[in-house]
C-alpha cells in the first residue's frame, strides 16, 4: 500500500463520497474506485459501506483512517523536522481548544510564537471539550488544550492550570453583595447545560448524585455561544468554568457566584496522542502555549491556579 493510496483513502473518508474525492483529487472516479478495491483486497477486509448518499467507514476503515492520517501527517512534517535540526523549528501545527479560552489566549499566543518561532504556523481549531478529545484521538490536530486529559490512557498530557466553576446568571439574578453559593443551594434554579455526553455535564451530575441532589436542567444546549446567550437573556443560569465569559465581550450583563461546599474544579492540560511523538514545531507550540497561559493567569487575565506538579506528568493535582 503506497502513500498515494493512503491519501486517496483519507480523501474518500473525509468527503464521504468517492465522486467528491475524485473531483478534489483531480482523478477519474473509476480509477479511484479501482485503487479502493486494491486496498481492500490487500487488507482482506471491507473499509467502506456504500449507500445512496455516499460512503461511510466500517470499523476496519475507521482504524485505517486514524492510522493513515497520522502516517500522512508525519510524512508531510518530515522535511520540516529534518530542517529543524539546523535551526529553529518550522512547519504547520494544528491546535485545538475551547472557543471561550481561545478568544483570550489566541492573540498573546500568536504574538509569542511570532517572536520565538517565526517559521511555525499555528492553525487553531475550536470546539467543546468532548470534541477536543475526538479530534486529538483521530489525530486531526497535533495537540489540544482540554480538561481532564490525564483520565485518557490514549493521550499524553501536561497539566497547565486548574479552573474553578461558577454559577452564572443575568445581572440581578443574585442577592446584592452575594459572592458565593453552596452547591446544594443551586436547588431548583433553571439551568442551561450541555447534554450528558459532555465532560462539564458529567462533572456536575457526578457531584449532584453524590450529594443526592437533582438539577433543574431546563435547556440542553451543546453550543457555548448559545449557552451564554440564554444566560444573558435571563432564561436560565449555568454552572460553567469561571473563564466561560472571558471572551472579548466580557461579562456584560452577567454575574457569577463561586460554587462552594463542594467547590467544582477541573484541570486543563495540553494533550497529544500517546503513539505519535510531537514534531519540533508542535513541541515548540506546546512550550509557548504553556508559557502564554501561565503568564495570563499570573496577570489574572485568565482565572485559574497553576499546577504544583512536575511537567509531563499525567496525574491530577492534589
Automatic annotation (TrEMBL):
Residues 1-58 form the HTH lysR-type domain. It comes from the Bacteria. InterPro entries: HTH-type_LysR_regulators, LysR_HTH_N, LysR_subst-bd, WH-like_DNA-bd_sf, WH_DNA-bd_sf. It holds the Pfam family LysR_substrate. Keywords: DNA-binding, Transcription, Transcription regulation. Belongs to the LysR transcriptional regulatory family. This is LysR family transcriptional regulator.
Amino acid at each position: 500500500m503506497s502513500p498515494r493510496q493512503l491519501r486517496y483513502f483519507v480523501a474518500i473518508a473525509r468527503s464521504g463520497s468517492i465522486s467528491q474525492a475524485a473531483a478534489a483529487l483531480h482523478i477519474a472516479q473509476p480509477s479511484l474506485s479501482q485503487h479502493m478495491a486494491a486496498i481492500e483486497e490487500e487488507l482482506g477486509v471491507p473499509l467502506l459501506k456504500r449507500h445512496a448518499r455516499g460512503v461511510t467507514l466500517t470499523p476496519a476503515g475507521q482504524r485505517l483512517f486514524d492510522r493513515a492520517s497520522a502516517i500522512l501527517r508525519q510524512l508531510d512534517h518530515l522535511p520540516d523536522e529534518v530542517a529543524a535540526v539546523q535551526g529553529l523549528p518550522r512547519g504547520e501545527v494544528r491546535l485545538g481548544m475551547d472557543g471561550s479560552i481561545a478568544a483570550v489566549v489566541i492573540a498573546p499566543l500568536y504574538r509569542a510564537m511570532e517572536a520565538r518561532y517565526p517559521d511555525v504556523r499555528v492553525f487553531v481549531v475550536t470546539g467543546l471539550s468532548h470534541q477536543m478529545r475526538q479530534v486529538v484521538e483521530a489525530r486531526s490536530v497535533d495537540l489540544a488544550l482540554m480538561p481532564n486529559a490525564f483520565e485518557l490512557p490514549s493521550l499524553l498530557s501536561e497539566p497547565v492550570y486548574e479552573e474553578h466553576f461558577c454559577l452564572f446568571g443575568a445581572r440581578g439574578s443574585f442577592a446584592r453583595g452575594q459572592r458565593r453559593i453552596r452547591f446544594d443551594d443551586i436547588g431548583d434554579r433553571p439551568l442551561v447545560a450541555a447534554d450528558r455526553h459532555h465532560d462539564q455535564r458529567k462533572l456536575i451530575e457526578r457531584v449532584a448524585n453524590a450529594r443526592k441532589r437533582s438539577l433543574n436542567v431546563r435547556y440542553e444546549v451543546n453550543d457555548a455561544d448559545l449557552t451564554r446567550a440564554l444566560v444573558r437573556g435571563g432564561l436560565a443560569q449555568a454552572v460553567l468554568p469561571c473563564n466561560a465569559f472571558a471572551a472579548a465581550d466580557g461579562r456584560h450583563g452577567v454575574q457569577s457566584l463561586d460554587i462552594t461546599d463542594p467547590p467544582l474544579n477541573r484541570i486543563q492540560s495540553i494533550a497529544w496522542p500517546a503513539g505519535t511523538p510531537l514534531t519540533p514545531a508542535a513541541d515548540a507550540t506546546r512550550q509557548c502555549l504553556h508559557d502564554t497561559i501561565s503568564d495570563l493567569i499570573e496577570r489574572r487575565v485568565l482565572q485559574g491556579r497553576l499546577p504544583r506538579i512536575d511537567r509531563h506528568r499525567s496525574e491530577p493535582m492534589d
